[in-house]
Structure prediction request, 285 residues.
Amino acid sequence: MANLRDLRTRIDSIKNTKQITNAMKMVAAAKLRKSQDLCINSRPYADYVEKILHTVQVKNRNSTHKMLVSPNSNGKILLVIVTGDRGLCGSFNSSIIRYANQYIKNHPDKTFDLFCLGRKGYDAFKKNSNVVQHYYNITEDITISSIYSRRDALLDLYNSGEYEKVEVVYNEFKSAIQQELQCKQLLPILSQETESISTIDFLYEPDEESLIEELCIKYINVEIWRILLESNAAEQGARMTAMDSATNNAIELIDQLSLLYNRMRQAQITTEIIEVASGAEAIQQ
Prediction:
C-alpha cells in the first residue's frame, strides 16, 4: 500500500489534471458556441444551392458535364477523410478512422486513394494507405475563399480520369453531445428527385452548359465549406463532452483517494498514540 506521501503526491497530481481538463472544457464550450452558429447558419444556403442544382440536373438529364457523369466507371475511388488535428475529443477521430478502414475492407475489388483533411486522419493512414493529398489546420479559418486550394486539388485529381467517384467521410453535428458519422458521394454529383422541382421550362442565360458548370463549382464549394463547418462543430462538442467526463472522473478519484488518505492518517495517528501510551506505561513499571 502506498505511504501517505505518495498518496498526497498522487492527489495533487490529479488535482492539476482536473484543472487542465476543466480549462479545456471551457475553451471547447466557447469554440462550440461560435462553430455551432456558423454550422447551423450555413445549412439553409447549402441546401438551397443543392436544390437549384438538382432542379437543373433533373431537367437536363442528357448533360454530360464532367461533374455529373463519372469520367471512369471502372476507376479508383478517392476517399476524403475529414478528421481533427488534435486528440482529447473522445471517439471523434477514431470512429472516422475505423469506419474508413472497414469501408475499404468491404470493397476488396476496388482501389482506394485517400485525401486527408486533418492531421489525425493523415497520421493514421500515411503508412498503410496511398494518401495522395493532405491538409492540416483545416478549422483555423473556415470560409468559402479558404477552401479554394483544397477544392482545386480535389477537382484536379477527379478530372485526371483515374477515379470513378469521390466520397467523403466526416462527422455531422447534431448536438453538443451527439455527432453522426456520414459517408457521402461528392463527385459525380448525384441527381435527386424531389417533389418541389418546378415543372416550368427554363430559359438559360448565357447557356445551359455554362449555368451547369457554374452551379457545379458553387455546389462543390458550398459542400466542402459546409462539411468542414459540420466537422468543426462536432469536434468541439466531442471535446467539450470528453473533457467534462474527464473532469468528473478526476473529482470522483480525488474524493476516493482523499478518503483513503484520511483513513491511513487516522490509523497512523492511532498507532502513534498507542505506542506513546505503551511506552509511558512501561516507564512507570
About this structure: The chain has two domains: 4-21+242-278, 31-239.
